[in-house]
């Protein structure tokens, strides 16, 4: 019987062990999509304790704690940090077979050299030991990236952001290169005239341009797009329920823009047309600058309206949606492809029922000379666990070319989440190793090692060219 979380964790055969330890383990990390704070990275301020480094902002943990019956004051509330940690320690034993159990103990080992299992009986010792380390200089945010051999981090940033902290970091990368990612979701918030108009007013101020019509809106957005590019941005990202690809005319969009700027509530048809226009025009900008565009689709967000009204978004009340994706995705990518304006693209799904849909759809719009120009992205959010990762790897193997896959990302708000790359690498090596030992693929160590290194590092480095 194997020991939990030993050096061969998740590696079921000798070939898997060889591939991981010889080819994957020591590779640098390119984390091309996360939600880390540029401010925390630039100021490089330490954490007072493990709760602040580990539980603040982590909706994965909050969700598990709520299921366990923990009161909200210990999740997003104002309970003391020590008590929040104790409630998490109470929850952890109940996360067996949930990826949180693996992630929790991987993070304790990799950052703090703590091998004890976290539970109420060990919570005091683990809290004291980890918190004592976190106040050291080498455990500040930049030091935590260094410990995990992180080469590049791409954060998630609003077009109206000043990028103040990215500019402080730029040219002074002591450990990792930290780059912004363009996330223009608020431009699609036309279902709420108040929110949309407040955002347009913000764009007017930051761009120093009057926005009285749709053309002027695009002019202001382009100025911000240029600004992001000047500050190292090479990626966009969109969080969508599904793609928007409705037919529209310029007259339609100008009329809709006038309606909403006058505070009128749009019809559903008008909302879809406007979002289709904005999404298309943003894609054109990305293509012109040679960026990669990313689309995270399928999340049904803020389902608990009581908690949303009390605490806001992104605190663990989202779920998988069952939206139809294929037709609009084909229309959206097809229009850009037909006009020869389709940028490099990565699409991530949240509904596992869409795995094969996205894997095959990506293959419809490949065009040389760049291999894997259209990517079906790594298992995301609720699918970012052993079963979900294996299913994603199997589907991309069956329906595309695994060798060109750009690999893993954290999608995390925590500086302690980088062992998720190790988790992915172990699962990948195990999948390939088992195939070898079953005689399904040849035992050619160099070929297999190159495959592993490409997926874990080389493909991302060549694809994004940061």
Write a structural description.
By secondary structure, the protein is of the alpha/beta class. 49% of the residues lie in helices and 8% in strands. It has helices at 14-24, 38-43, 50-54, 59-67, 81-91, 99-112, 123-134, 141-147, 164-169, 193-207, 214-230, 250-261, 268-289, 305-311, 326-338, 355-363, 386-399, 419-437, 445-464, and strands spanning 29-31, 150-154, 177-179, 235-240, 292-297, 299-300, 319-320, 344-349, 374-376. The strands form 3 sheets. Strands 4-5-8-9 form a 4-stranded parallel sheet, with helices on one face. β8, α16 and β9 (374-376) form a beta-alpha-beta unit.
Terminal Cα span:
44 Å
Output the radius of gyration: 23 Å
Q: How many individual domains?
A: 2
Oligomeric organization of the protein chains: single chain
Q: Sheet with the most strands?
A: 4 strands, parallel
Lateral strand order in the biggest sheet: 4-5-8-9
What is the fold-level CATH name, i.e. the topology of the largest domain?
A: TIM Barrel
CATH class of the largest domain: Alpha Beta
β-strand number: 9
CATH architectural name of the largest domain:
Alpha-Beta Barrel
The CATH superfamily of the largest domain bears the name Metal-dependent hydrolases
Secondary-structure element order, as H and E? HEHHHHHHHEHEHHEHHEEHEHEHEHHH
Please indicate the percent range of residues in DSSP E strands (runs of 2 or more).
Answer: 5-15%
The number of helical elements comes to 19
What are the segments in which pLDDT stays under 50 over at least 5 consecutive residues?
Answer: none
What portion of residues is helical? 40-55%
Q: What best-fitting shape do the alpha-carbon axes yield?
A: globular
**Protein structure class:** alpha/beta
